[in-house]
Amino acid sequence: MGCTPLISQALLSIHSITQGPPPNNTLVVNGTKLVVLPFNASVEVVMQGTSILGAESHPLHVHGFNFYVVGEGFGNFDPNNDPKNFNLVDPVERNTVGVPSGGWVAIRFYADNPGVWFMHCHFDVHLSWGLRMAWIVLDGTLPSQKLPPPPSDLPKC
């Protein structure tokens, strides 16, 4: 995990509401946000929980990858000071992490699995509030890096 991240401290604002739907000023345009990543890119994402009074955390899950939790804390993430305390020696490896209400979590992963991979909150109602996105991981630029076709005997859906 001692690499330079391609996406450094990208902030995904996580809105935590304890009762009812979010206020009108927090509704998002309907659609899933997409981020295109080169194959084998090193990605760092900081997820910031924005509700200090809410008791609800957000279990964020990434499909297609395990990631390393390199840092976490309460309050607002400080890009000048908090990375100095990241655990880059033996970080915890996961595919789901709780973003605390009024706190933040920093994760890192390598984009080494080509395809389109969903990242979302595990509270279903939060998906309709915009707590979802997808990573598009390219499969390389050289023909030798392209994925082989599926086997001919692969069952059809």
Number of E-state strands: 10
Give the number of domains. 1
Strand order of the largest sheet: 1-3-8-5-6
- CATH homologous superfamily descriptor: Cupredoxins -  blue copper proteins
CATH architecture: Sandwich
* Distance between the ends: 38 Å
How would you concisely characterize the structure shown here?
It is found in: Secreted. By secondary structure, the protein is mainly β. Helices cover 3% and strands 41% of the residues.
Compile the SSE list and pairings.
Layout: E1 7-14, E2 33-37, E3 41-49, E4 58-62, E5 67-74, E6 92-94, E7 96-99, E8 103-111, E9 115-121, H1 124-127, E10 132-137
Parallel strand pairs: 1-3, 2-10
Antiparallel strand pairs: 3-8, 4-7, 4-9, 5-6, 5-8, 9-10
Could you explain the architecture of this structure?
This protein is 3% helix and 41% strand. The chain is an all-beta fold and 157 residues long. It has a single domain, classed as Immunoglobulin-like (Sandwich). The strands form two sheets. Strands 1-3-8-5-6 form a five-stranded mixed β-sheet, with no helix packed on it. A five-stranded mixed β-sheet has the order 2-10-9-4-7. This is Plastocyanin-like domain-containing protein. Keywords: Copper, Metal-binding, Oxidoreductase, Repeat, Secreted. InterPro entries: Cu-oxidase_C, Cu-oxidase_fam, Cu_oxidase_CS, Cu_oxidase_Cu_BS, Cupredoxin.
